Amino acid sequence: MASMAILLGSGKRKARTKIARTEIGRVGPKISESSSSASPLLRRHVQSVCFRGRLLENNMTEWFHFTMAGSDSNKKKERRRRCRRGQVNLVFHHNHRHKGEGERSRLLSPIQVQPDSSDGSSSAALGSIIYCIGGRCFRNCDDDDGHTRRVQYFDVNRPTEAWKEASPMINPRSEAKVVALNGKLYVFGGCSPPDCGDWAEVFEPCGPDDDGGQGQWTALPSPPLPPSLPTYNYRCLFAVARKASNKIVVVLQGSYAAYEYDVAHNSWLDFNFDRSLLVLNQPVVVGNMLYWVSHEINAYHLDKKTLFSGPIEDLQIEHHLRCGDYLFTSSLLHLAEDHFCLLWVAPDESLYRLHCTILQVSKSTDLNGKGCLSASVLSCQSFIVEFPLDFLDGLLM
């Protein structure tokens, strides 16, 4: 286990670390197969993950792709912990269920490198196509405000092909929120003052004969602004799709004003959202529940407006979540039913590791009727990434 000093590292730039190839099995660009011991639930939902990180040394963006292995079916089923008021027992240690620790650790190789990627770009996936949308450009930029309309894409099934240029957006954007729904990409916010143009727009690929890059961008109406927000500077905190109702929940930064975009009617509705909720990372919707990770795991019922919170039963993850000296970035992805995947990168002595932790999340209530949540670890995968990088985000393919 890495020392406490390493786990609390400030994330400063580190020199490249040479790794003995005789001690490490290389993974990628060919996708590894999922474990034959995966649980029946996860075998029915075999999915792969794509994530990106920015290299600390040269600011380039690397993209990685791998297939998740499920939990061991021979292990006893993890018991569902109930919330105990005033007491949290973290019963698992991350390394106890790791696949890939030790001398036989695997090196995960990038399938794509973006030497000219933009800061503030957003990513999304339609099928096997990954899109990199907008961002800030600092040289040779056609937009006066430094934001860009540029959209790039590549197919994870064709990793040897270079990035391609897709149809540019109507408006330049940076740090926009992107939602994939029904084969289209909906983009919200990220505009720059003083003229935002269209605050939201949607991209629809041309059709089955197109490789994903050609298509049409169409402007969407803007949500009604609260009087306290200037018309040119209301950013999107997060946007998530409620697939069953064909609507997209959009929450604005600062005021926490919230709306639902009705895709079928191309219109906005006011949405009641609890302003006290601390949602810093991109959440995920499962049915009517909104899940996200802050200093613990949280679930919020979008209709009943009830909150469930509780720990992730893993000492190493819990340490990172509650540590103020280390910037812990992660992506929470929904796999199936009550199974989730937490992707995160952390330094381990002189190396950087990607961790893929599969969780089973259960809801309960305490003696006072307060909603509780617990996330038990089913399995873990660990890969070494060759050079130090900042984790940006992850996508479920």
TrEMBL record:
Spans traversing the lipid bilayer: none
Name of the protein: Uncharacterized protein
Organism, as annotated: Camellia sinensis (Tea plant)
